[in-house]
Amino acid sequence: MHKGKPLKGLNVLVTRGEEQSAEMIETIAANGGIPHAIPLIDFVPVSRKIDQLACLDDYEWLVFTSRNGVEFFFRLLEQVTKPTRMPKMAVIGNKTKEALERFGFLPDFIPDEFVAEAFAMQFVEHLDQNEKVLIAKGNLARSVICDEINRYGAVCEEIIVYETIFPAASERLLIELLQIGKIDIVTFTSSSTVDHFIEVVKKHGMRKEAEKLIVACIGPIAKKTAENRGLVVDICPKHEYTGNAMIESLIQYLQDKNDKEERK
Fold first, then answer.
1. Phi and psi for 261 in degrees, rounded to 5?
2. Model confidence pLDDT, tens digit, residues 185-229
3. How far is CA 226 from CA 22, 96, 170, 178, 198, in A?
């Protein structure tokens, strides 16, 4: 392994949505890797009217579970009469926090660990049972937080502000790379990227090609999905669930693997 360029010569598939993949691509290239950006997800705003946006005054808390949730929420909010006050805001993760700050708001709550289960356990301690909470999310996001808040006794509602789709052009591009063996490592940034990858692999009978790949997942939820879909996950960050943390874990994995081979 090249110590200064630990990913030198390795082809890394970036499956993240196109608008959010630039930082990962840059990190991979800076470490000598060859990034191949094939977005296996994309996001579009919902087309239907969202009644809760017109009555935000009714809620004490507004929860965002992703930066997409933040960005699409505020886009949609521009289309309605602004509330007289904004609720307190809670976010999961630093990227979501940064997205909120770009719209001029600071979060009132952020959990120690950036997964829904940890958020829910810590967040209910900040709630009164008569408070109302609104969660802005995508159509495929889990309902863990909402379920826990309602179990606690507060009132929680969810609104879908964006939908996840599979970009039509990506299927052909993915199959072409698999067929010529042009992928060494695949990175998954969500359960949806895993699901779409597996659907393409199964459709085209490319299971053997997929099994040769080093598999990296951004966090425990994507990892669980990948394992449930039959993939062996080699890399998953233990604490911070971001693209850069995943690449750092990948580099550490390759270094450890190289050290073991040298000791043989």
1. -65, -35
2. 999 999 999 999 999 999 999 999 999 999 999 999 999 999 999
3. 23, 24, 19, 18, 9
225 within some domain: yes
Per-residue confidence (pLDDT) for residue 93, from 0 to 100? 86
pTM of the model: 0.80
Long-range Cβ contacts of 251-257 (<8 Å, 24+ apart): 251/6, 251/7, 251/31, 253/214, 253/216, 254/1, 254/6, 254/7, 254/10, 255/1, 255/6
Tell me how many domains the chain contains.
Answer: 2
Distance CA 154, CA 38 (A): 42
Q: Is the pLDDT of residue 91 over 60?
A: yes
3 falls within a domain: no
Both 52 and 115 in a single domain? yes
In this structure, the answer to whether residues 159 and 55 fall within a common structural domain is yes
What letter represents residue 191's amino acid? S
Residue 64, domain extent: 44-165
Selected residue with higher pLDDT from 79 and 159: 159
Query: By C-alpha distance, which of 257, 189, 175 is closest to 226?
Result: 189
CA atoms within 13 A on the CB side of 11: 13
Q: How many residues does the chain have?
A: 264
d(CA 136, CA 66): 9
Both tokens assigned to 79: 């289309």
